[in-house]
Amino acid sequence: MSENILVTGYAGYIGSHICKELTKQGYNAIGVDTHTVNDDVFRKYTKFRYTWDFGDDMFVDILKKHNITKVIHTAATSLVGPSIKDPDSYYTNNVSKMHNFLNSCRQAGVQRIVYSSSAATYGDGHEIFSESIVPNPISPYGRTKLIGEYLIEDYCTAYNMSGVGLRYFNVCGADPEVEFGQRSKPSHIISVAMTRAINGESMTLNGENFPTQDGTCERDYIHVVDVAKANVLALKAELNGFVAVNIGSGLGYSNRQIVDSINEFTDYKLDYNFGPARPGDPARLVCDNKLAKRTLNWVPEYSNLQTIIKTAEKWHEKLQG
Question: Are 139 and 150 in contact (CB under 8 A)?
Fold first, then answer.
């Protein structure tokens, strides 16, 4: 009999890909989200779907009903800028409701929690991010994700549970079969650039004099399918207590490389110009992912720039279809 895995935020960008990966690997995905989704593609990859708030005190009933012993928690409020303008919603969703959720997990006998954390827990001042860095988040979003890690760690220590915090870098791309992708407003340069290319628009790159190979800033981009695979591997990793690991490609792709790749690998032409660099924008932000490789036996497979761009192209064409 297939094991039931509960996924919070299953209707979201990352959660939907996780449900598909779970199904491909023989698990039953039990989806929970505050949004109601009933189309065929979600029914294909979720055995049961609940329109429910994961922080509800009665959430324990769902966990017990389906004999859940492992959960993947992706549901969160998750943008840096809005968290500065409205920290209350972030502390409510990512901390208060998270606390309630952990109590439900404890009461239901959950043994493993896989948690979607963020590179925003680190803060600024680094070019290469390793887990040895002492976290110093600079936004309410980053702080709430770090508090979530602390909560899980403390529950694991006290209540004989185990957990993995996955610190995502820039999640991008889409399901190669074009069943899932980012449905919300584009939030990083790859989705923005692809959308503008399809619409025949140009874009401005911020800064051309960074101390990088081509003068534009470099960031670590990780394909969403690689993220989904990391979540599934974290369910079965052999560990006691809690560990936080970086989920990134370990590579730096520049803004100019992204635009050039769109022009090379897609049917579109994206014109661009340069504007001033944004204040405080670092030249290079790349992760060290060796701990994730050792702990989860995980290796990114889809996070080369050509695959990222081609899958983003197919998805955004479908959205505008």
Answer: no
